[in-house]
Amino acid sequence: MRAVDLIIAKRDGRELTPEQIRFFVRGLLSGEVSDYQASAMCMAIYLRGLTDAETAALTLEMAHSGETVDLSAIKGFKVDKHSTGGVGDKTTLVVAPLVASLGVPVAKMSGRSLGYTGGTIDKLESIPGFNPFMEISEFVDSVNRIGIAVVGQTKDLAPADRVLYSLRDVTGTVESIPLIASSIMSKKIAAGADGIVLDVKCGSGAFMKNLSDARLLAEAMVNIGESLGRRTMAVITAMDQPLGRAVGNSVEVKEAIDTLRGTGPEDFTRLCLEVASRMLLVGGLADSLEECRSLARRTLLSGQALAKFRQFVENQGGNPEVCESYDLLPNARYQEVIVSSSTGTVVRCDALSIGNASMVLGAGRRKAEDRIDHSAGVLLHKKLGEQVEEGEPIATMLTNRRDALDEARNMLSEAFSVSDVAAPVPDVILDPL
Fold it and tell me: HSE of 120 in the Cβ direction (CA atoms, 13 Å)?
């Protein structure tokens, strides 16, 4: 078998067999398939696409290209969730303890931030003492004892995907939906959960900018999960503006705790309940999504989920007293308020600009080796569809980098538009699938 023959086959629109895909993936790591041949294959896939069978085979081979996590020792049906990335997305911090508090085990591997999208592990490391690293045996034991553990993703998970992505990034083939879907799902499959819920973001602050592409990606990932024996559901959610009102790390932890108290922002709370209800349904807790929504809502308001969050934080070495005292979390030295230059309705609250401003202030990474400032970020006082008066606060910058304020201020000034024409408050749920 030769790589060039596979490239020609895909260039001409022919379907590759599982054996051919296995040869290609294994050749990526062994060097039998060169970088230029892999790049040519990525372009052929970008132009010709993959069938559902090809996409599933590629996902499975990448999942098994490195370490896979065996969660069979965890009692019950294990569920995981994945977000395709957004601004202010701290959903795991709420839905994982909420679902676990109802008896559905949550065994989750999460990543760090890169660029303007936040990483769950960075947010959790805002909590003093929190340790996101465990041996697999300790990870399994934690889920068996308290129903939840969230740990950092290892470099040994789906290494073929990492090689392929680095080539896609420099060859103009990142936007291929089959390649995006297989990239995401290879890591989810390797992480070992029985069921997966996918939160596919759509809008200016998301990778998928329009609803039709987001729907195609969601459907592709659900098809992969189901074909590989994982119970899988998806929901498409809005990311034209940030989720909630806090963008950063420690500020998002605070907002997550507020939400676990039942006092979080309306859009964020709604999203958490939708994702949690799907995790409960996938986990077999009830027979209908409506019943799962009701269970999730009652549990959130009861304080049971907050108690589970405290237990989860303490189990991983963190200080659970952050739930009562936010002063224990990192706080920025400098704060600056941005005010509205006019009176009217907010018609633009651009997630991408706000995410980039937060990154400039220190909350994100431009390069993987950059250090995170856990106290940095942006607080939003006004969002889409809300009324604002001239001179009224619209956002607050938080940072320890005084020299970053000018650049971030310019970004935030461009992020907001105010009109004298009324506009509705948009729903965070775009397509429940």
Answer: 22
Structure tokens at 242: 């940030």
Domain 3-49, CATH among 3.40.50.700, 1.20.970.10, 1.10.260.40, 3.30.450.150: 1.20.970.10
- pLDDT tens by residue, 100-120: 999 999 999 988 766 676 789
Is residue 183 among the annotated active site residues?
A: yes
Mutual orientation of helices 250-260 and 304-315 as an angle, nearest 10°?
140
Strand partners, 150: 108
pTM over 0.85: yes
Query: Which residue among 161, 199, 267, 373 is the active-site one?
Result: 161
Whether 155 is catalytic: no
**Mean pLDDT computed over 3-15:** 97
- One of 108, 123, 168, 293 is an active-site residue; which one? 168
In contact, 171 and 56? CB cutoff 8 Å: no
Across 223-245, average pLDDT: 97
Residue 290 class from Cβ within 10 Å (0-12 exposed, 13-18 middle, 19+ buried)?
exposed
Is 187 designated active site? Answer: yes
> How do the domains of the chain map onto residue ranges?
3-49, 79-323, 330-419
User: How far is Cα 276 from Cα 234, in angstroms, rounded to an integer?
Assistant: 11
Q: Mean pLDDT across the chain, nearest whole number?
A: 95
Fold of 79-323: Pyrimidine Nucleoside Phosphorylase; Chain A, domain 2 (3.40.1030)
Helix ranges, 191-327 (H): 211-227, 250-260, 266-282, 289-302, 304-315
List pLDDT tens digits, range 305-330.
999 999 999 999 999 999 999 999 99
Run of H or E residues at 35: helix 35-48
CATH annotation of 330-419:
3.90.1170.30
Identify the pLDDT of residue 114. Answer: 66
Q: What's the mean pLDDT in 207-219?
A: 95
Per annotation, catalytic residue among 183, 204, 340, 375: 183
